[in-house]
Every structure is written in C-alpha cells, then in structure tokens.
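Table S2 (continued). Query chain:
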Amino acid sequence: MYRLTDIALSNWYLIRREQIRIRGAAALVGPTGAGKSTIFDAVGTVLAGNNASRLALNASASGRSARTVRDYCLGWISDPAEGGRPTREACETVIALVFENAATGRTVSFGLALAARASDQKEEVLSRFIATGHRFEIGDYLRTNSEGSFTAPWTEIAKDLRVRTERFEEFRSSGERFTAEVLATLREGAPAPDPRHFLRTFSNAVAFKPIFDSSAFVRSFVLDPEPLDVARVRQSVENWRRLLETIEELEVKLARLKRLAGRYESWADAVLASGIHEARAATAELRRRCHDLVAVRTKLRAGAEALRIARESVGTSRGFVRDIDGEIAEKKALVVGGATDGRLAASTIGLSMLERDRRDLAARVADLVGLVGQMGKLQAVAPVLRQVA
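Corresponding output:
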C-alpha cells in the first residue's frame, strides 16, 4: 500500500519553497491562520488535477471570500476588493506529492506546475505530471543568483525529470484523466475507485464538519451528489405550463368543432329529410302522371277507333252526297224539261226529301269533321306522352 511521504511546495501562498516530510500517521495542528488549510488545499489541488469543477478549497481566514488557486500562487493575503496586493506579481508554482510503497520501497511522484500573473484572472496549467520511480525533491531545483535564491523554471524541471525517472507522463488537457491515472498507479493493477467519487470523499474528509445525522452523512459522504438544476426545473415547469395552455386551446377548438359538426349534422339531416319529401312528392306526381297517361292512352285508342269509323262514314256519306246531288240534278232537269204536273209534284216532294237528307248528312259530316279535329290535337301530343311514359 502506498503512503504519502512528502509534500513539495514552491510559491504556494506564503510558502516560497518547502519539502514537508511525513512519517506514519500525521496531523496538522495549529491556531487559526497557521496555514493548515493551505497544506490541505495544496494536496487537494494536486489530486484533483486543478479541475475547477471537482476542486473545493477551504474558506479564507476572514471567512468573507473563498481562496482560489490563483490567489494561492500569487500569495494574496488580504481581499483584493479591500485594496490588497499579492506577494508575487507573477510566478511559477510547483506542487508535488511523493508516495512510497512500504512493502516494495517503490516511489512515485504526482505534481502540478502552474503559472499565474496578477494581471490575469486565472492561473495557467503548465503540466500535470506523473514521475514513476522517483522521489521529487524541491531542493534539487534550488537556484541562486545575485538577487537571491529561486526555484528553477518548469521547463528545466521537466527536462530533468524525463532523464531521472522510469516513466514521466504529462496530462495538460484533462484533470479528471490525470486523477484517474493517479488512482490507477497507486492501486498497481487493482480496481481503481471512480475519480469523481474519490474527490468528493476526499473533500468531505478534510471539511472537519461534525456529523449529527446518519442520513445527512450518507447523502454527503456516500451517495453521489444530485444537485438541483434550478434552470432546468424552471424550464421543465415552463414546458409543462405551455403544454397545459396548448391542451386548453385544443379543448376549446375541439368544443367548437363539435358544435360545428353538430350544426352540419343537423343541416345534413334537414337536407336529407327535404330530399326524401321531394322524392316522395315526385314519386306521387309520377304515379299520378302515369295514371293520367294510361287514361290518355285509352282515350287515344278510343279516339283513333272513332276516327277510323268517322273516316269510313265520311267516305260513305260523300258517296251518298254525290248520289243525292245527281238525283237533284235529274229532278231539276225534269222540271226544266216541262214534265207533267203530277210528275212535277212528285219530283218536288222528292227534292224536298233529298234536301232534308242532304242537310242531315251535312250535319253528320260536320260532327265527324269536329271529331277529326279533336283527334288531330291528340295526335300532336302523342310523342310527348310517349316520352313521359
């Protein structure tokens, strides 16, 4: 099992350069403001790979603002809002944790290299590194000049580590991947814990908060956090409100459609009933006309027969008329020829009878002519009656 044996710090808060040795179980004890949280925050920053979403730094000594990694690098003592100035205007910060396996004696160093400037809002991550088989000593990179001592720049330190270690690996882009690799290295092939769960547990462990409720302990230290996304909840509520408004609008439209459909159904029923009545009336009228047609056809057939008989009678009567006209002519000739008085009287009587017969025959002929005229009118409407039939 690996144990933490060294904490190497350079330009971290008020610490210019320090190698803290740890043997066995250790505790950080001191009054408020002694720097206990500074050491814990350095360890937490390395283990989190300076991942801002997973890093939880302790509150500042004043309690009115929270320290940031940039504040630690530049050595801010007082709140900048109150006119405070940093200890360092610009610097490179190096933090390294050395772990040793007591059983095998194998060592591994994990660290961060950061750059910060007072003019910048955030620090820059130069490197997240893992140096296998090497014990990192900050004193190895102590440099001096006419102005005093300082720590070598990170480029020089990285070049030296590549030469002196079995394996030197850097993670510049992903803090979570760095944490996962740290845990995997310390486990030496055994299943490694989830990086997010580990960092949350570590943050809770150094919080020094008393536990009075077992449920709160489980929620805070065991279960994964489930933060309430207020914006998402508000958006969800707004979506549901819009859905309810849409449903209400659809219900109103549906009621209108039902009323409109009822009106159309009533109109359709009325139109259908009117059509049925009209069809029934038309059927009755058709039946009446059919009866009239039958009667007219009967009359037409009777008239045709009467016409035939009348025509025959007219022909016969015309013959009689011609005969009578002939007899009249003869009688008149006899009168003109000077016959005897007896014969004249007989002829006169005969003429009178013939005249009477002639008048009767003429009257009958006139009646027949009237009948023929009526039949002619019926013949004119016969084609129309056939079309109706």
